[in-house]
Design a protein that fits this description.
This protein is mainly beta and about 260 residues long. The protein has two domains: about 120 residues, Cupredoxins -  blue copper proteins (Immunoglobulin-like, Sandwich); about 120 residues, Immunoglobulin-like (Sandwich). The chain has two helices and 21 strands. The strands form six sheets. A five-stranded mixed beta sheet has the order 1-14-11-8-9, with no helix packed on it. Strands 10-16-15-12-13 form a five-stranded mixed beta sheet, with no helix packed on it. A four-stranded antiparallel beta sheet has the order 17-7-19-20, with no helix packed on it. A hairpin with a 4-residue loop joins strand 8 and strand 9. It is globular.
């Protein structure tokens, strides 16, 4: 675990909250350092193929909701205009910010851990990005770009939970995961409107849909796969796909308005 040594001064009306957090922090375990790398199974580039995944949305997306930061003037003053939360982002019937990944079909293949970290910044008293995905063994870096202190509290069901304070501007902290879990909720106990979701996947074939609702999974060995998607409010979907050598297949999954996890 990498961390910056930090000290902080906070307004009196916040000390009770952070005092309570002290007990939580002491009791909370954290994901350890990077797991041991297993021998990597090479992918035959001569037969590898790709899967394009498109995620559609039927119906009318819920309207955005304004985030109320007025209880913390430091946060509110960083936003001259109202800030809105809009988990369901749809354009032309296509859904953005959906986690897409190969759920099964890769057998016992092992893949090299990426060394480039995925970074979630605390900026403007918001998590940016709000939705993130990493591979098992890949570093996940949290950064605090605010003058305001935050704590980062992960509430997984499978991997180890974590909870740590980040009070100094530009401080960072890095954690790793040794097993997969989809849709881990992350929040700040000091600022209850702050939340993000982290998905940990045990292979390199994953991504987040763009504004066109698509993700392309490249250099995939031919085979039979289950493609899975996850959205923070709409839940999960799966679909099977048969991928021939050197081929390219398109998979479409659809969410309906009113769907939930």
């Amino acid at each position: 675990m990498n961390e910056n040594s930090e000290r902080f001064l906070l307004p009196v009306d916040r000390l009770l909250v952070l005092g309570a957090l002290t007990f939580l922090l002491a009791a909370c375990s954290e994901p350890s350092g990077p797991p041991e790398q297993k021998p990597v199974t090479p992918v035959d580039t001569a037969t590898a193929a790709e899967i394009q995944v498109r995620v559609r949305f039927n119906g009318t997306a819920p309207p955005p909701k304004e985030i109320n930061m007025r209880s913390t003037p430091v946060c509110a003053n960083m936003h001259p205009d109202p800030v809105f939360e809009q988990p369901v982002q749809v354009k032309d019937g296509l859904l953005a910010n959906v986690v897409v990944y190969i759920q099964s079909g890769l057998g016992n293949r092992a893949f090299a851990f990426p060394t480039e970290p995925v970074t979630i910044d605390q900026r403007g008293c918001l998590y940016k990005p709000r939705i993130a995905a990493v591979m098992v063994g890949q570093p996940l870096e949290f950064r605090n770009s605010d003058p305001e202190a935050h704590n980062v509290h992960g509430r997984p069901e499978v991997v180890d939970a974590w909870n740590f304070l980040m009070s100094r501007p530009n401080s960072t902290r890095t954690i790793y995961f040794d097993k997969p879990e989809i849709g881990i909720r992350v929040g700040c106990d000091v600022h209850p409107w702050m939340h993000a979701y982290v998905s940990v996947i045990d292979n390199p074939y994953f991504g987040l849909t763009d504004a066109k609702g698509t993700v392309t999974l490249k250099n995939v060995p031919p085979g039979e796969y289950v493609i899975a998607t996850w959205h923070e409010t709409l839940g999960a979907r799966t679909q099977q796909v048969s991928l021939p050598a050197q081929g390219s297949e398109t998979v479409e999954l659809t969410y309906d308005a009113g769907a939930g996890s």
